[in-house]
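Hi support team,

I'm filing this because I wasn't sure whether my run with 2-deoxy-2-amino glucitol-6-phosphate finished correctly. The job status page said complete, but I'd like someone to confirm that the output block is well-formed before I use it downstream. Pasting the exact inputs I used:
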Amino acid sequence: DSIEKGGYPHFMLKEIFEQPRSILDSMRGRLELGASHLNMGGIRAYEQKFVNAQRIIIVACGTSWHAGLVAEYLIEDLARIPVEVEYASEFRYRNPIITERDIVIAISQSGETADTLAAIELAKSKGATIFGVCNVVGSSIARATDAGAYTHAGPEIGVASTKAFTAQVTVLTLLAMIMGQKRGTLTDTKLRELMVELDTIPAKVTKALELDAQIREIAEEFKDATNFLYLGRGYNFPVALEGALKLKEISYIHAEGYPAAEMKHGPIALIDENMPMVVIATRDSSYEKVVSNIQEVKARKGRIIAVVSEGDKVIPAMAEFVIEVPHTSEVLMPLVSVVPLQLLSYHIAVLRGCNVDQPRNLAKSVTVE
Ligand code: AGP
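And here is everything the job wrote out:
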């Protein structure tokens, strides 16, 4: 057991620390800096369909659904195709409108999630093209799809998904870039810039992992909290949802992720001196707005843990705890900003004595409806 964990006390921690490697593996053969385009074998036969797609529907559950939400931002931003992100369980039961011109992207780590599989079968019966993003080779979902791309994250044992999420986001980023290039919505210069930046992500994730000791101290401070709010905007909104889900599943602390600007429409009423707020406030196009959201929280005495870009001079004066992550392009930020949130939930769960790798009531793959 300890050999399998590679010296780490839990699979989850091992898998968090594997991310520089697993992200690299998910880019291998697809991103070559010497080339002028990206490669993804799985889409080759369906290239025209992707280029002409009028709509993309993403179906997934849980963490994979959060990766799908990141993909919505990516695909709309870079390839200008409208995207709908659906919980597979809702999609399949609500008589959705699906046509032969739709592409459905199904995202699943295990490739065995019953609701996602059923959503695929439904979309298939309506003639849509199904593209899978799976981690487990030969899994039911991988076999049920028309084409797809494996995430190559390697086996994920911890019930809380970590490296599978960043691998999914990496693959979906590549897919959005490919579609953007083919559709002419992403200039060669911008594509090049993103390729170069994507290539630096494993090293940036390695740097983010160096925050482990600092995050453990923050976890000590908040381990007895009963509620948490996670806030983010734009690309960091799905990261807020993912951070909250991680905390809920393994530490059993109630946590909610919210788009920061929605706070004033309800959740702001929850804020008092006992409410920890994790705000993801990296330097991007919504930075100034997130800073004002932080001010609103501070005025109500909420306790702020802020994830910021390295060198931020403004937020440290406002937040009680500041976690500085390496800076990257806005569209790639989820790959870096999610890392401290994974570590925070891990350390809080360990300090609370929870079974991190096998939390109560949860299974690694949900093969029942
Ligand atoms: C993630 O931490 C969860 N354990 C869960 O939400 C999971 O992402 C979900 O069940 C989907 O699983 P899949 O990716 O294997 O389809």
